[in-house]
Amino acid sequence: MINLYGQEINKLTKLMVEEGQKPYRAIQLYTWIYEKRAQNFDEMSDISLRFREVLKEKYCLELPKIFLKQVSSDGTIKLLLELKDGYKVECVLMRYNYGCAACVSSQVGCNMSCSFCSSGILGKQRNLTPEEMVGQILVINNVLKEENKGQRVTHVVVMGTGEPFDNYDNVMDFIRIINHPKGLAIGARHITVSTCGLVEGIRKYAREGLQTNLAISLHAPNNKLRDALMKINKAYPLETLMPAVKEYEEVAGRRVTYEYLLLADINDTKECAEQLIELIKGTKGYVNLIPYNETNKNDYKRSSGNRVHAFLDLLTKGGVTATIRKEFGSDIDAACGQLKAKADDL
Ligand code: SAH
Questions:
Q1: Domain 65-332 class?
Q2: Mean pLDDT score of the chain, rounded to an integer?
Q3: Out of 46, 228, 241, 318, which residue is the most buried by the measure of CB atoms under 10 Å away?
């Protein structure tokens, strides 16, 4: 069975032509499944009964199942979804005044082994398919529909479990499906991919011709510290990563966001702020400071509010644009990987 939710438009068009159909069938199907939110083929009244039977035989419209749902007092919803083979992945809905943002996972587990992150503890089990990533957004949209407030996911960040550039082709299909005007029609500038710094992926992404955003998980301003926090830095140290970021800015014509997690007494010192300013001075990117979500899987502590603000002040005075990431769902195990870790312990 081919899951229609995973089909990028050119691939679906090719499939329809192979079925002896006119190319426009693909757009017609997109309209039914994404705009009209058809749940089955019988609803597709302008498709002939005969072809609907063919569709039923070979294609399906399957979504991951909700295994756990946590709702925070601030309206954040965290879902643990069960996939067909029993693996589970997390996705989160965050509510901003400008819309609803979904944080999507790209892999089951992760191979990057960042020392502060609980997603990598068990390594990568497998890549997610495009339909499993699209499915996360559709399930969130269904949850929103039940609330009856007329809301849908308007923004997407690929910042859940997994390294998107370690699952490059599937993530690109996913982006093209959700960005397509007859797909979920989520604007390119509302879509952000976050990478720990896979340089080949950054270079390729620059050339996709997308107007989507890129975030780089930097977290440290020198190789010694970054080596200790992120294993990937040994393969792609800062002197390799930063030229790739500059190349991205030139080729894609877009600024990047640097994510910088603040860990108490590790990377939140005045010296680190000064090094960070020097490191990114030559790029146009801005810094998003992330208060660390503590987990029971390691000993890192979150920096105090004073430290976070002092760090922000130093960056600003040094001419670097920086913001502090707004926190969501702190009452519902919002730290990366915690809900899944909890479910695994059940
Ligand atoms: N692999 C990608 C995307 C997934 S991680 C990447 O590295 O960017 C998304 C972001 O969450 C990364 O910046 C990651 O470093 C950060 N993160 C991981 N564990 C965290 C925690 N406990 N608290 C806050 N942020 C965390």
A1: alpha beta
A2: 94
A3: 241
**Dist CA 320 CA 285 (whole Å):** 8
pLDDT band at 248 (very low <50, low <70, confident <90, very high): very high
Region 152-159: mean pLDDT is: 97
Question: Is domain 2-60 in CATH 1.10.150.530, yes or no?
Answer: yes
Residue 342 — pLDDT band, cuts 50, 70, 90? low
Domain boundaries for CATH 1.10.150.530 within the chain: 2-60
Segment 160-173 mean pLDDT: 98
Contact 118, 165 (CB under 8 A): no
Report the pocket of ligand 1 as residue ranges, CB < 6 Å.
Answer: 112, 114, 116-117, 159, 163, 194-196, 217, 259, 261, 290, 292-293, 295, 335-336
337 pLDDT above the threshold of 60: no
Cβ(273)–Cβ(313) below 8 Å: no
- DSSP code at position 263: B
Q: Whose CA is nearest to atom 25 of ligand 1?
A: 292
Quick: pLDDT tens for 50-72.
999 999 999 999 999 999 999 99
Ligand 1 center from residue 10 Cα (angstroms):
32
